[in-house]
Design brief:
cytoplasm; DarP_sf; mainly alpha
């Protein structure tokens, strides 16, 4: 059914979704690192990031 169709727009849309997901995962990991630093270093970590 798709053999005679241009599937590039579908591929591009899927790539865009995958990229957005990867960006969200990276941001989540960064937030986890910040959280861990705040837990480990407390007020010192807050003062350094301000």
């Amino acid at each position: 059914m798709l053999r005679n169709r241009d599937v590039d727009p579908i591929r591009q849309a899927l790539d865009k979704l995958k990229n957005r997901h990867n960006q969200q995962v990276a941001l989540f990991h960064k937030l986890e690192q910040i959280r861990d630093r705040l837990i480990d270093d407390g007020d010192d970590a807050v003062a350094e990031s301000a």
